[in-house]
Design a protein that fits this description.
Length: 534
């Protein structure tokens, strides 16, 4: 539960939402606190683990080695040293370090896992992870190393700092020893008790935690796609007699109950409300191209998969993925496979395919907006030749020819981005080899699927931004003869300011992305659950 008044993420035994996790991970002002119910459940879980250990029962990772060594006992006198060995052994990730929000999301997701009562860690260990967040300790977590059967290497990087080893990133972005990061935060290294090392590293907290951040970006992108579509509808109406809103009508949406389709169509109608497309236009084409006409179906299917990702994330957040599982109800420790997040991995997979389809439709709409751009440029060229005024001409430009607000070949950039989207849509989860003497003979590769999804998100946001820029440029060139919709008018106004500065193409797209993030959040205010209205 998130308290907006105190900026406290109060963690109990009640379900948490993926969106609240992302919010707390991104916002450094949040204070994370375990409530008495969570601490009590964690304590009962620990009691079961200690009782099991005292009984002499062989339990995986508690008093045995791991992986292919699962049937080899660890002597009682070596159990404490074994905890350190487990952390060191698994701290083997490579690649770039996660950014601050993602690293915090990893720690928070694991802390939530402790609170579900399946791990057997001590309450003070769970509290220590809360203090890592509250005191700004940022472990240096490498991106690569997990095959998606628990994010072992990423979580070991956190555990290494917790025990005073490993590396962390200070407030200046400098890599420092984990012991120094703890000392600077006023924390003493954690001394792990038997069974805790495996509990710290054996979870999917990277895929889940970073996945919540991707979910928020996906929710934004679903709205942004509808915004760009709405702008293109108004542009094609002005220049090519299109912009037929019949496919967005309530009657069409009621005829086929595809999840998300009605929401997309409703968003478009609301963005265009109050504008000239709402009125009767006898000259309008009876049917636009499918990239316009079937956009609610494409965008709706995308929205549906985004919602499914939210469900998959919350299954993981609120479930118990520990192995061995401390089952508080029966008082036993049970081996299982809940650390295999197959549903989540497939959600990441399917979304990349959906993003590619959204990108195909967007690029096709951009292509249909290109002929008006050429006509405008031809007109500008003729005017410059006739007047020879040179007003606005820049270095390297022919005398009398002003620099255009919209770079001429952004469509080609969009086409290149689309090709990358299609490439990124290829399956990622099918490629894991067998590991650990063929004991670990199937893995989900959820982290790779997530990382490819993150790349796809970035690519599609650029592509859809180019569509919004192109349509807005054409609407500004067309003048104010017909009123824009209440929502699209706001967007065009914001992008007009960006276009007017005539920045370079890379800067234009980045500035437009930032402006669109801001204006979309204003048009679609979001609640903690991710819904919104305007």
């Amino acid at each position: 539960m998130v308290s907006s008044e105190t900026r406290t993420f109060l963690l109990g035994t009640a379900p948490v939402t993926a969106r609240s996790v992302a919010l707390a991970a991104k916002d450094l002002t949040f204070h994370v606190k375990l409530n008495p119910d969570a601490l009590s459940l964690i304590g009962r879980s620990r009691e079961i683990l200690e009782r099991t250990a005292a009984s002499g029962q062989r339990v995986y990772g508690l008093n045995t080695l791991l992986g292919s060594g699962r049937d080899t006992d660890v002597e009682e006198k070596s159990l404490l040293a074994y905890q350190v060995q487990v952390v060191r052994y698994h701290n083997s990730g490579v690649g770039e370090y996660l950014d601050r929000a993602a690293a915090r999301a990893v720690i928070l997701a694991r802390l939530i896992g402790f609170s579900r009562g399946g791990s057997g860690v001590r309450p003070e260990t769970a509290g220590f992870y809360a203090e890592l967040l509250n005191r700004g300790v940022l472990p240096a977590i490498p991106r690569e190393g997990s095959v998606g059967s628990s994010d072992l290497t990423q979580l070991a990087a956190v555990a290494a700092v917790a025990i005073g080893e490993g590396e962390a990133i200070d407030a200046n972005g400098t890599l420092v020893p984990g012991a120094k990061a703890l000392a600077d935060a006023g924390l003493q290294p954690l001394v792990l008790a038997p069974g805790e090392a495996l509990a710290l590293v054996s979870a999917n907290a990277y895929s889940v935690g970073a996945g919540t951040l991707a979910l928020v970006r996906l929710q934004h992108l679903a709205r942004l796609a509808d915004v760009a579509l709405s702008l293109s509808l108004e542009s094609i109406a002005r220049y090519d007699g299109g912009g037929n809103l019949s496919p967005f009508s309530p009657a069409i949406q009621a005829a086929k109950a595809v999840d998300g389709q009605g929401d997309s169509a409703d968003a478009v109608r609301r963005l265009l409300s109050g504008g000239w497309l709402e009125g009767a236009r006898p000259e309008v084409s009876v049917q636009d191209a499918l990239s316009f006409r079937a956009a609610p179906q494409t965008h709706g299917a995308f929205r549906s998969l985004v919602a499914q990702l939210g469900v998959a994330l919350e299954v993981e957040l609120n479930g118990r993925g520990d192995n061995p599982l401390v089952d508080v109800d029966s008082g036993q420790m049970v081996s299982g496979g809940n650390f295999q997040p197959m549903q989540l991995a497939l959600a990441f997979e399917s979304l990349r395919l959906a993003l590619a389809h959204v990108g195909i439709a967007s690029e096709r709409r951009i292509a249909k907006l290109y002929p008006p751009q050429r006509a405008i440029r031809a007109r500008h060229l003729q005017a410059a030749a006739e007047t020879g005024s040179g007003v606005g001409a820049g270095p390297g430009l022919a005398p009398g020819l002003a620099q255009e607000e919209l770079p001429g070949l952004l469509w080609y950039s969009a086409a290149g981005l689309l090709a990358e989207l299609k490439f990124l849509a290829a399956p990622a989860t099918l490629g894991a080899p067998t590991l650990s003497a063929d004991v670990e003979d199937h893995s989900t590769l959820a982290p790779l699927a997530l990382q490819q999804l993150e790349k796809s998100l970035d690519v599609l946001e650029k592509l859809v931004t180019i569509e919004a820029l192109t349509a807005s440029y054409l609407l500004l060139e067309a003048g104010a003869a017909q009123p824009l919709g209440r929502g699209t008018g706001v967007v065009v106004g914001r992008l007009a300011d960006v276009l007017a500065d005539r920045p370079s193409a890379p800067d234009l797209v980045e500035r437009a992305r930032a402006a669109l993030r801001d204006v979309v959040s204003q048009l679609f205010p979001e609640t903690e659950e991710g819904t919104g209205s305007w």
